[in-house]
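Review form for a predicted model. The reviewer records the input and the model, then writes brief findings.
Reviewer: anonymous (R2)
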Amino acid sequence: PLGDLRDIFHYLGKPCPRLILILGGPGTGKTTLAYEICIRWARDGFLAEDFDAVILVPMRCVQQRSVEEVKMEHIGEENYQQLKKSSGCRCLVILEGWDEMSVERRQNDPFLLRLLKECTVLEAAIVMITSRPHACEDVVAGR
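Model under review:
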């Protein structure tokens, strides 16, 4: 149930990890979950006590784009710089549909590593990745 979404971020009272993986097969609701978190944060203040900003990056939209282009479209340079300067700004970055990137890009392209680095430059950022399980071996292995 959607009322239990907070459990993703407050599991057993422990601090939220810097990386959250949401894995599931086709049609299990990963994309719906990502959009629901964003909509509820913007509309209802859901998780507002935990996050100052929630940024959704649909990975299917970034196939041939640079990190700078993605940053400009989904965050905006001014907002990004403001987030970087804000000491302790709590930001949730959702990389939705990791598996929708090509295998070559996931495995060989420094773009993804740079995108993750840009996300984690934000001091208090939490990165959530939604994906089908087969596409996350490198993320799970920490590569």
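Findings: The chain has a mean pLDDT of 76.
Further findings: The beta strands are 19-23, 53-58, 90-96, 124-131.
Recommendation: see findings above.
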